[in-house]
């Protein structure tokens, strides 16, 4: 299969208020890839994704979506190319799940048009795929976090875009829901879509993603397959702590954990001091009461 | 969906009955059948032809009741629709047209017109000044909130508060320099009322309010997207800023027109859309029509009650909307605290 570059990032610096968080970032993503963006909190994963989606300005360098510069894409063109799931979408008012998914059809309608039977069919199919069809008439307030995320994923799917950007789609979900979201994405990539997602679960990323990009220290530290990227050296460098990576011989999955000294006397001493402050103030109070 | 097939006809029935009551009740009661007979006679509909009516009844209906009821319906419908749109723009169920300075701007305009003694020259000066003041206030609010070609919702709210305070202070300042008679005139205006409304008021209001409502109805589906917030709306390809600005202007124009023919009337723009959202849900394609009909009906109902509660004194409609609106709103808030956001 000939590889086809759908997202190209070349030498960009990105950040808020002209303060670059990332500098000289370059990579290219091919059609059908499932890419996990990982890195410590505040490293700039979301910033990178937002810049690629055109929500933040490209300070220097070049971002291309299907061969077109992001600055040249209109809001409508962009929405037809890229679906975007934001980190935490607060939904005002009591919209029902199906009304939210229907919003994904917006870029495909002219401004005076009404949703047709075809649009409703797509909405239905998307909700069926993410398993939320039975929640269609529930309001977004009345459903759990895991279900909510699946409804929002259905909305992004209903946009029928070849590329999907997902910003922490699994944060705050319990393990099985997390795995499910990854699994949905993997299937979508097999069907020819390209998914780029910001994730924190390194083990799940290693299992499902076809490629992992590790962001840290103001740039990309590593870019490649899970085995290439998730090394002790790379992770220790990115997260600033000593990290061990172990491959589980039974499942073949990766386990990542930090290494501490067994017992840290200075930490314990600090804890003692916190409690000590408490007893001292209590004494003072009781002394005052005595007088 | 089944609920809707019952709800909208029911709303229409309420609308007709309350309009009819408003035309009928007052210091001179005109029986329903006489009103229908006069209307049918005028419109050349061969119904109620055998019901007699007097020229006196005809005069009361045409020159007093009808303009009053029509202004009430128009203003109520305009306030209901603008309220729903504002709540949508701000994604906040507690927003109303007053929040971006429409009413405080109109007050300044009105107080200037009174202070300059223009109100004695023509009845049109006050509405025109109020309208200009309202537009000026909204422009100022939007201008203050604009940063790097964007209008963040929070900044817009805050600059609305600031502009409201500034204009409120100006109004108070001018008021303290006026004589008692002028002050009372202002007070009368500021508590909105529908008394002595004439056909001129109807003609003044009908164009802008109906136009505004029409545009808002056309934008209903887009409003549904805008409510989801900046990022969601942009993600599905909506140019957020132009849409928000456009809807803001339309809602302000509609409200300003209402304020200019009937004075400041609070609570309709806040309570009615809120109430309708509970009944028909947040989809603006149902919410807007419901708010429009219910807004008109509610305002006329308040006016009618204010008129008949202790004759011959009339309680002004601005007072009645607040008196009826506040308890209901509190009830809603307490009942659905977890649902409203």
Automatic annotation (TrEMBL), chain A:
GO terms for molecular function: ATP binding; ATP hydrolysis activity. The keyword ATP-binding applies. Keywords: ATP-binding, Nucleotide-binding, Translocase, Transport. It holds the Pfam family ABC_tran. The keyword Nucleotide-binding applies. SUPFAM superfamilies: P-loop containing nucleoside triphosphate hydrolases. Residues 7-242 form the ABC transporter domain. PANTHER family: HEMIN IMPORT ATP-BINDING PROTEIN HMUV. This is Iron complex transport system ATP-binding protein.
TrEMBL record, chain B:
The keyword Transmembrane applies. This is Iron complex transport system permease protein. It comes from Propionispira arboris. It is a multi-pass membrane protein. Pfam families: FecCD. Keywords: Cell membrane, Membrane, Transmembrane, Transmembrane helix, Transport. The keyword tRNA-binding does not apply. GO terms for molecular function: transmembrane transporter activity. Belongs to the binding-protein-dependent transport system permease family. FecCD subfamily. The chain crosses the membrane at residues 70-90, 97-118, 124-144, 156-178, 198-219, 256-275, 287-309, 315-333. GO terms for cellular component: plasma membrane. Its main location: membrane. The lineage of its organism: Bacteria, Bacillati, Bacillota, Negativicutes, Selenomonadales. GO terms for biological process: siderophore-iron import into cell. It is found in: Cell membrane. SUPFAM superfamilies: ABC transporter involved in vitamin B12 uptake, BtuC.
């Amino acid at each position: 299969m000939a590889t086809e570059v759908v997202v190209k990032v070349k030498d960009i610096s990105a950040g808020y208020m002209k303060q670059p968080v990332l500098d000289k970032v370059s990579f290219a993503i091919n059609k059908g890839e499932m890419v996990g963006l990982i890195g410590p909190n505040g490293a700039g994963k979301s910033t990178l994704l937002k810049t690629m989606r055109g929500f933040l300005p490209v300070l220097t360098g070049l971002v291309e979506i299907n061969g077109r510069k992001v600055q040249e894409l209109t809001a409508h063109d962009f929405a037809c190319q890229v679906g975007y799931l934001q980190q935490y979408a607060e939904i005002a008012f009591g919209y029902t799940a199906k009304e939210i998914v229907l919003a994904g059809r917006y870029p495909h309608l002219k401004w005076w048009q009404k949703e047709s039977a075809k649009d409703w069919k797509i909405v239905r199919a998307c909700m069926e795929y993410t398993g939320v069809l039975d929640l269609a008439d529930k309001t977004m307030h009345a459903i759990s976090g895991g279900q909510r995320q699946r409804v929002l994923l259905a909305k992004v799917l209903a946009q029928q875009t070849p590329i999907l950007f997902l910003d922490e789609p699994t944060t705050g979900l319990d393990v099985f829901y997390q795995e499910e979201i990854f699994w949905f994405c993997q299937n979508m990539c097999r069907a020819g879509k390209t998914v780029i997602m910001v994730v924190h679960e390194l083990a799940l990323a290693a299992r499902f993603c076809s490629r992992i990009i590790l962001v840290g220290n103001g740039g990309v530290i590593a870019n490649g397959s899970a085995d290439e990227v998730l090394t002790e050296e790379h992770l220790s460098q990115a997260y600033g702590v000593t990290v061990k990576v172990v491959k589980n011989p039974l499942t073949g999955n990766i386990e990542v954990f930090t290494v501490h000294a067994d017992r840290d006397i200075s930490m314990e001493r600090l804890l003692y001091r916190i409690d000590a402050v408490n007893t001292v103030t209590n004494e003072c109070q009781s002394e005052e009461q005595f007088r | 969906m089944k609920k809707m097939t019952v709800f909208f006809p029911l709303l229409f029935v309420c609308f007709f009955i309350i309009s009819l009551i408003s035309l009928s009740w007052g210091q001179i009661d005109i029986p329903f059948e006489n009103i229908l007979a006069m209307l049918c006679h005028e419109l050349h509909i061969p119904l109620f032809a055998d019901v007699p009516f007097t020229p006196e009844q005809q005069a009361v209906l045409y020159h007093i009741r009808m303009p009053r009821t029509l202004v009430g319906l128009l203003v109520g419908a305009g306030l209901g629709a603008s309220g729903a749109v504002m709540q949508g723009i701000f994604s906040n169920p507690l927003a109303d047209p007053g929040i971006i300075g429409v009413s405080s701007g109109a007050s300044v305009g009105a107080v200037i017109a009174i202070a300059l003694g223009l109100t004695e020259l023509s009845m049109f000066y006050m509405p025109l000044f109020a309208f200009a003041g309202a537009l000026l206030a909204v422009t100022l609010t939007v201008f203050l909130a604009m940063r790097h070609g964007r209008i963040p919702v929070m900044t817009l709210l805050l600059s609305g508060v600031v502009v409201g305070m500034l204009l409120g202070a100006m109004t108070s300042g001018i008021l303290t320099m006026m004589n008692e008679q002028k002050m009372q005139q202002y007070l009368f205006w500021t508590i909105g009322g529908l008394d002595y409304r004439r056909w001129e008021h109807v003609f003044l209001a009908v164009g802008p309010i109906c136009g505004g409502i029409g545009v808002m109805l056309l934008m209903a589906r887009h409003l549904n997207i805008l409510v989801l917030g900046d990022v969601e709306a942009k993600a599905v390809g909506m140019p957020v800023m132009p849409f928000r600005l456009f809807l803001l202007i339309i809602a302000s124009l509609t409200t300003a027109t209402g304020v200019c023919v009937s004075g400041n009337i609070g609570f309709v723009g806040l309570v009615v859309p809120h109430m309708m959202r509970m009944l028909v849900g947040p989809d603006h394609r149902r919410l807007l029509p419901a708010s429009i009909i219910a807004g008109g009906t509610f305002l006329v109902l308040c006016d009618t009650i204010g008129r008949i509660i202790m004759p011959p004194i009339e309680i002004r409609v601005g007072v009645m909307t607040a008196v009826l609106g506040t308890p209901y709103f509190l009830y809603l808030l307490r009942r659905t605290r977890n649902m409203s956001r």
